[in-house]
# Entry
Amino acid sequence: MATMKIVVGILLGLVLGLLGLALSLVLDLRAERAEWDRLAALQPEEPELFDPEMVTDLPEPAQRYFAYTIRPGTPLLPVAVIKMTGEFSLESKDDPKYRRMEARQILAAPEGFVWAMRMRGGVPISGSDSGSWTRFRVFGLIPVARQGGDPDHTRSAFGRYVAETAIWAPAALMPGPGVSWSTVDEYTARVTITHGELEQAVDVTVNPEGRPVEVSFQRWSNANPEKVHRLQPFGAVMSDFREVGGYRLPFRIEAGNMFGTEDYFPFFLADVIDIRFPGAQP
# Structure
């Protein structure tokens, strides 16, 4: 009888544990959906149309950036949704062990972003990043990473999605409140985004025709051997540009920590399969 009670207790504990994990997953997915919908709703209903005259006061490399990425007369839509496949590494530069991944993302700078990812091969990992959380699970249920709600995470996430905005949502970087541009050199302009107490500068480097070739910035990150948050270089290289609704955007991205140094490790290799702008007229 005592043994039976122990077995029943163990089984009951397992059931309650699984129910708790399932409830946590449901709540996380609900929060992810709510944040996605909130950001999508920020798309302007009656957007301005791009005119090169809007950027004539910007540094020359920034003018070339906008001239290349946005065709005249294109609605200025700052909210973008990107679907991608590619490879992602959770390991090191010396032994990256890249795994296949697929993801979808919404960018709505300066308000936020959501990146929802599934990783294939080996133990399946899925979850999402946003300005408020990092949540990933194995087998779709068991948490292996759960962070957020603190200044370090918020600052790091802000740097990420501001930089990705320079890649996929140039309309969000038009000059205006909270957005300023300055010159770095002949081929590089620096955009600085401020949002409340957050501020992030990102360098955008273009070629002679204005095609952006890389973005780089100092990211607040603990991706270092000491696991201590500090500013360190991060960046991405862009290629395979295609036209999407009046925008010319990259469909191939390689990004990683310690960009521009011998320790650069491109842990994120993405091939875009679709870019759209929610609320845009067909």
